[in-house]
Specification:
globular; single chain; 9% strand; alpha/beta; 8-stranded parallel β-barrel; 40% helix; TIM Barrel
Length: 372
């Protein structure tokens, strides 16, 4: 990707800080990284953490539109992965016209999965898409971790499992000790050696309130292996600034190719109007056709119709946000006869709660079922 030039860097805490100095002769370069295989103490356990260009994966292209962070399904008796349902759901979403799938996100209960299970979910999704003829559909894989080393390992796992891109949260467990430079270094270090391109995941609620400014994301976007961002912060002003600074791809123009994505369906239209690339939205697990139709209406210039649809989508998205993953799964179980439960310690819903979730999603599901 070509270099983009945004605004000067400012800290999340609004203090001016120097950029990472890659020209420092004592700093490891991308080809002489502490994360290269030669410097790993147990290289047999970590898949070739090298930045050599010949190890870069040829990822399927990202295109503007709707991406769905898929839920992970479990056998209700023993909580084992329900791989057939994971496969069936991926194909249902693809047939609805989405642009791509995201595995291992918050909706996918990545924090409840072992490393092996994470690989199984992505591998199952890729196999299902390919088997149904959606060989060109990209998969973005959540690869956030608390250490740089593990995040890189997850990027390699993602590639080996059929993933095309890594969606990476900033580490937050030791937040008090991580200044802005440490967080910038984290993303640079991961992007330097990840075999697949990286998208920045800005989700303050999931990382102890760490909220990157537009200046920070614009600066990180200049890294050649950082190709997009997901903004679940909901700040559409920030999204507008990033989209403009990066010349983001839109449904009507390829721009630089940088993907500036909203993180929720309730501001899909706002995202598109200010020059964003689309959304990665959990609500589309329930209503993928409605989410896709909204983008199509905007792309065709049918703004009044898009506004009306956005209102319904926003109400449905509030049901998904309010009920969380257990509400989303409950609604899917009610209306589509699959969904099940989250892994413990997530609670199982009562009959009364299931009825409440069904009612809150009814308007959205009625719309979904009316769409061809």
């Amino acid at each position: 990707m070509t270099s983009r030039h945004g605004s000067p860097l400012t800290s999340t805490f609004h203090a001016n800080l120097p950029l990472r100095q890659d020209s420092n002769p004592t700093s490891p370069s991308a080809t002489d990284s502490i994360y290269s295989q030669a410097n790993c103490t147990d290289a047999s356990d970590i898949t070739s953490l090298s930045s050599s260009d010949d190890l870069r994966h040829h990822s399927r292209p990202l295109r503007p539109g709707v991406y769905v962070p898929t839920v992970t399904f479990f056998n209700p008796k023993n909580e084992d992965l329900d791989l057939p349902t994971i496969a069936k759901h991926a194909v249902r979403l693809a047939k609805a016209g989405i642009a791509g799938i995201t595995t291992q996100g918050s909706n996918g209960e990545a924090v409840h999965l072992s490393q092996q299970e994470r690989k199984q979910v992505t591998k199952t999704t890729r196999k299902a898409l390919d088997g149904a003829g959606f060989t060109a559909m990209p998969i973005i894989v959540g690869c956030g971790a608390q250490s740089t080393r593990e995040a890189i390992e997850l990027c390699h796992d993602a590639m080996a499992s059929g993933g095309d891109y890594a969606l990476v949260l900033p580490p937050s467990y030791y937040k008090a000790m991580l200044g802005q430079n440490s967080l910038l270094d984290f993303f640079h270090d991961v992007a330097d050696v990840s075999p697949i391109p990286v998208l920045i995941y800005n989700y303050p609620a999931a990382v102890g309130g760490i909220d990157f400014t537009s200046d920070t994301i614009n600066t990180l976007s200049k890294h050649p292996n950082i190709v997009g961002c997901k903004l679940t912060c909901g700040n559409t002003g920030k999204l507008a600034r990033i989209a403009a600074a990066t010349n983001a791809a839109t449904p009507s123009h390829p721009g630089s190719g940088f993907m500036c994505m909203g993180g929720s369906a309730d501001f899909t239209l706002q995202t598109l109007i200010v020059g964003g690339s689309g959304v990665i939205c959990g609500m589309a697990n329930v209503a993928p056709k409605a989410a896709v139709r909204l983008v199509e209406l905007y792309a065709k210039g049918k703004i009044t119709e898009a506004q009306k649809l956005q209102a319904i989508v926003a109400r449905g998205d509030w049901a998904a946000i309010s009920g969380g993953i257990i509400g989303t799964k409950s609604a899917m179980e009610t209306y589509f006869e699959y969904g099940g439960y989250g892994r413990k310690p997530l609670p199982r819903v009562s009959k009364q709660e299931a009825a409440k979730y069904a009612e809150s999603f009814k308007e959205l599901v009625d719309l979904e079922k009316s769409l061809a």
